[in-house]
Amino acid sequence: MDTGKQQRLNILTKDAKSKIINPFEKHNWQCVITNAVEDGEYLLIQLDKNNITYKIGFLYSSTTDNRVYKRLDSEVDLIIINGSFYHIESFAYGISTKVVESKNIQDYILEWNKSASNGKISSPNPQRPKTLFKEFNNRIQSENPINQIWSRIRQFKTKGLAEKLVIQRSQQLGITLSQDDIISKASGLAFCIQNGCDYFENAINQKTNQRIISLYYGAIAFASAEMLVSPNGAKSLQEVEDMTKFGHGLYTFDSLTENAFEGFVVGVLSNGFFKKWIEFLEYDVSEFPTKKPRKAQEIDLTNPYVTNLIDLFSRIPELEDLLGMLTENQENWLLFNYDMEANGLRYENRGATYLKITDKSCSKTVEDIAKLDLPLEQIEYIETDEPYLHFRALLNHPDHKYWHEIIKLHNSPFTATSYILPIFSSINDYRCIATVILYSLSILVRYRPSIWRSVVTGQYENYLALTEEFLFVYERLAPEQFLESLLGTKLHVVQSGSMLAVH
Which of 49, 104, 416, 472 satisfies CB 3.0 to 4.6 Å to 100 for a cystine? Predict the structure, then answer.
């Protein structure tokens, strides 16, 4: 076969799929290229639907020999030119079959669909297709998104909607729950949602010390709701209550340094509510200590399962400016971004992506980056005119198309998307870290009034601004994250009037 003719037929085949076959297949026509003819450079295409058959001749050019037109006149129902007419009357004469440009294909989709329909019913669609169950909407569009987020959460204070959510979550995972389990989980879920909403609503008008306690117990209520709504979580409110019989799962100890606030010690235990919640979230709890220290000499701050209050605050990216003014403690979060320069201009799924990692604290090393529980390699420093310290690393993600699908990133309307360095060896969920902070503050408020008084009015009063800013950020971010956990899906939160808004 002539090489030039073959190339043109290849082009024609490609265009036939996009201009004729794909549009007709969307209307349930079965389309087949029955022949590719070199002499005249055309394709024969057969379309079938509901026992109706049409044949099309698809020509490479309108300036085709008249003998080809006459040959097709007896073979097809329609002749289509790939492109525009050029002196068509000089070539397509002496035939009765219509000749049209490919841009007019929609006219024949309409006409031929009518001929293949059974009255008002289009065919063939003999079977009702499988349908997806209706899910609760995960899109939030509002000028003040937090109000709509709370509105969604409050829906599940009713047992009826709580039951529907429990069923939806089980269907998502293909898990069948008994009716008794559904009713039990829904009843507990509705109660926990009610409790959580009450605690958060009360916090709005409370003084800082009361506000801390309300928000902490609100967090516990929503964490309980997370476990109850999941088909793999607690089956009843009683089961959640049993988790608290061994306490909160956390402990505190007075500071080992002169700064009683910053150095306030916080640790995790292998029993109690926090451990159960973290285990439910699929974090490794196998090395959590079984008992808390009794004296200062037993505390080792290099142990990954013990930390202090300022180290916890250093993992809240929204507090960056205040932290810089109040303490020398370094920020413990990183910025991960696609490295356009290292990856090249073409984006494709290679199973590995070069990332630019920014450390705003300028304190981390390549060894610190290598210690992260992430599939990173080729880690190196990079020089740049931009501020802060920067690294480049290759992230392997062979089972995912996008690199950010395998990194747990913290999204916030207040700051850039961040990767929070984990506490207690592996935990980097914002709401979990925030709950540990609230627990620590609640202990100060209730059981260490001498330290808390110094925060309210005394030598540590600068930390009151830090605490109140944290509470403000938490009240905006935590409900959204808890709602995502309840729904089992990522929320899409957009401002009305923005480019992403639905108009």
Answer: 104
Residues 6+ apart with CB under 8 A from 430: 316, 410, 420, 477, 481
Q: Are 329 and 311 in contact (CB under 8 A)?
A: yes
Chain-centroid distance of CA 176 in Å reads 25
User: Residue 470 to residues 42, 197, 443: CA-CA distances in angstroms?
Assistant: 70, 19, 17
Cα 41 to the center of its chain, rounded Å: 50
Scan for tokens 């916890």, then name that residue. 312
pLDDT of residue 503: 43
Q: Which residues have CB under 8 Å from 270's CB, separation 6+?
A: 285, 288, 289, 290
Angle, helices 208-229/179-203, rounded to nearest 10 degrees = 160
Instruction: Read off the pLDDT of residues 386-433 as tens digits, 9 standing for 90 and up.
Output: 999 999 999 999 999 999 999 999 999 999 999 999 999 999 999 999
Q: Are 322 and 469 in contact (CB under 8 A)?
A: yes
Nearest to 332 by CA among 308, 311, 355: 311
CA–CA distance, 39 with 409 (Å, rounded to integer): 60
Residue 195's identity, in one-letter code, is N
Element (H, E) at 441: helix 430-447
Residues 6+ apart with CB under 8 A from 200: 150, 214, 215, 218, 475, 479
Cα three-residue angle 306-389-463, rounded to 5 degrees: 45
Residue 502 has pLDDT above 90, yes or no: no
Residue partners of 151: CB distance under 8 A and separation at least 6: none
Q: So what's the pLDDT on residue 134?
A: 56
Question: Residue 120 contacts by C-beta under 8 Å, 6 or more apart in sequence?
Answer: none
Residue in this structure with the two tokens 């929503």, named with its chain if needed: 222
Q: Tokens 């961040």, residue?
A: 418
Q: Return phi, psi of residue 18, to 5°.
A: -80, -35
pTM above 0.70, yes or no: yes
Whether 127 shows a pLDDT value over 70: the answer reads no
Q: How many Cβ atoms from other residues are within 10 Å of residue 146's Cβ?
A: 16
Q: In what order do the strands lie in the sheet with 306-308?
A: 250-253, 265-268, 306-308
**Distance from the first to the final alpha carbon of the chain:** 55
Beta-bridge partners for 48: 30, 53
